Amino acid sequence: MKQQRFLLDSTLRDGEQSPGICFSAEQKMKIASILDYSGVHQIEAGIPAVSKQEKEIIIKIIENRKNAAVSVWSRLVPSDIENAVDTRPDIIHVSIPVSQIHIREKIRQDEDWVISQLRECLYIADKNCVPLSVGFEDAFRSDINFMATVAKILLDYGITRIRLADTVGVASPSRCREVVNELSAKLDGKAELGIHAHNDFGMAVANTLESVKSGCLYADVTAGGIGERAGNCNLAHLVQASSSLFNWGLTGSAARDLQNNIFRVIKSTRRTR
Fold first, then answer.
1. 198, β-bridge pairs
2. Among 11, 26, 128, 223, which lies 20 to 30 A Cα-Cα from 230?
3. pLDDT over 60 (residue 271)
4. How far apart are the first and last CA of the chain?
5. Structural domains in the chain, sorted by start
6. Would you list the DSSP string of 183-214?
7. Residue 269 pLDDT class (50, 70, 90 cuts)
8. pLDDT tens-place string over residues 29-63
9. Tens digits of residue pLDDT in 131-154
10. DSSP letters for the chain
11. What is the pTM of this model?
12. Are 103 and 76 in contact (CB under 8 A)?
């Protein structure tokens, strides 16, 4: 029997960071509806902290969904968490920088600051009774021991979903396998891991597939692989490449039709930045 795996579609969040794409409110509602009826497990609807208008659209998506879980994305910033709480999503996803280069060079902080910020964000979410998932930013260039330290804090709070993000698209299948296996072992298999791959070297589908084969339960995808820079893992390609191994909740042909329907929406009323 095929193993169950789960698709997290980020077309409305990471997909909108694709050069030349800026979805209208109408487009977002239509795309969310298509995803909701497709069999996709989770829709990443956007970033509430971006603007009041973005928050309002996300709230409408949550109010109108019928089947899929809806999550929103947040930085490791308390005000981002508060904005996310306002939308009352199923899950708030918090992105945490874990590599030395991101912590020291990008945000000019240290590991103690990351843990302190994390605890503050966890307090806000816990106080408001909204479940969290957490993303390890630049995970495949990070120290496994530091990721394990952060993950154990999360597990102490009852947070089990951890997304490994190849933020700058430099991972390989063998590196994905190594990190997933080693981190899972350090956490005694208690974490539900996910993979968020970028396609800078054309490896997003391969990296995602190898991560899933190594134990990741969740795979982030976008319609047609659109997304920041060179894009993300292509939903239809992933499902078509692995439907003989995993039950994704939809078939390869259904995934292809889903992408086609989304691109009809994008092309019909397309706006550019």
1. 232
2. 26
3. no
4. 46
5. 3-268 (3.20.20.70)
6. HHHHTTT-SEEEEEEB-TTS-HHHHHHHHHHT
7. low
8. 999 999 999 999 999 999 999 999 999 999 999 99
9. 999 999 999 999 999 999 999 999
10. -PEE-EEEE-TTTTGGGSTT----HHHHHHHHHHHHTTT-SEEE---GGG-HHHHHHHHHHHHH-SSSEEEEEEES-HHHHHHHHHT--SEEEEEEE-SHIIIIIIS---HHHHHHHHHHHHHHHHHTT--EEEEEETGGGS-HHHHHHHHHHHHHTT--EEEEEETTS---HHHHHHHHHHHHHHTTT-SEEEEEEB-TTS-HHHHHHHHHHTT--EEEEBGGG--STT-B-BHHHHHHHHTTTEE-SS-HHHHHHHHHHHHHHHHHT----
11. 0.95
12. no
For residue 205, pLDDT beyond 70: yes
Q: Cα separations (Å) of 20 from 3, 175, 227, 261, 271?
A: 37, 32, 10, 19, 8
pLDDT band of residue 272 (cuts 50, 70, 90) is very low
CB count in 10 Å sphere of residue 257: 15
Q: Cα–Cα distance between 236 and 238 in angstroms, integer?
A: 5
